Amino acid sequence: MAFITLNKSKLLYNYRYLDDLFSKSGVKWAVVAKVLCGDETFLKEVLDMNPSQICDSRVSNLKAIKSLNPDIETIYIKPAPNGSIDEIVEYADISFNTDLETIKLLSEEAFKQNKIHKIVIMVELGELREGVIREDLTEFYKQVINLPNIKIIGLGTNLTCMYGVLPNQDKLIQLSLYKELLELKFNHPIPYLSGGASVTIPLILNDSMPKTINHFRIGETLFMGTNAYDGGVYENLKQNIFELHAEIIELYEKPMMPEGDIGINMTGEKVEFNPEWENSVNYRAIIDLGLLDIDSEHITPVWKEVELVGASSDMIVFDLGNNKRGLKVGDTIPFHMDYMGILRIMNSNYVTKITV
């Protein structure tokens, strides 16, 4: 058995800190809850903090959020697939968009459901993921603004997620200028400039964020206490809100060096072995987790003497040295995880979720 815990008090501490930071900066912010993968146990803890908005990139997760709290404002934060238009209009109050034909489908569906569907138009500022090309933005806006049952409430941008392009004052000022241009040309207010994510927080802290940026989407820093800009941690935030515990299903003293001819393993790699392992015997523990559940590169044993030595689809093997803790089959080993590790393990149906 394996299970992941969420520390409620640490999460609430981070939420209150960030809420105070954004409030003082005149910024509205939304919790990006995609790392929870729609798990109701953990979603309830987030909803109990009373955020004003929750974002997700899976419509099934937004459906779970609405089932727990129908009144919370939900945001779908990637371009909508055509096959999910009806559900997006039903479960997302706001969606982020970049494609004209998709917005037309949202308009038609919103009319059918007798709703006004709010949208944020994402603008390409160099990350080359989602976003309308800047040169096309005015014409794009012109074709969207009068679509029935669609209300444009903001412009937004995404940075860092794919290529690591960092936000800076210049890029966010560009977004602000496009807002001013469109408002003047079309005489239509654009309430939100959603230019902020976890990676943008340092611009608030060093007072270099344009005042016009008034909406942030925050996931990593809330759930991890990490600085997405430089990979460090914030000393005034809590880390390791999540902890993974995996049960030992085998534990023996075994040679460190395998015997026989070495070929390609199941992941397509030819493993290289440390020459120092020759004639060495240590305790080896197999845990009840595998690459199906999590990439072993994204977990770190809490105990320093525990070292990863190999992984396969359903099992991961660790060297325990001389097993100074006296571990045995049935005991669990605790692990910390990075953001991608949590995202992967939360998506596993084989791992129990527990709040502490």
UniProtKB/TrEMBL annotation:
Q: Which organism is it from?
A: Myroides indicus
Q: What is this protein called?
A: Putative amino acid racemase
According to the entry, every stretch annotated as the Alanine racemase N-terminal domain falls at: 8-225
Quote the Pfam families the UniProt record gives.
Answer: Ala_racemase_N
Tell me if Isomerase is a UniProt keyword of this record.
Answer: yes
Question: GO CC terms on record?
Answer: cytosol
Q: Which GO terms describe its molecular function?
A: alanine racemase activity; pyridoxal phosphate binding
Obligatory cofactor(s): pyridoxal 5'-phosphate
Q: Which keywords are on file for this protein?
A: Isomerase, Pyridoxal phosphate
Keyword Isomerase tagged: yes
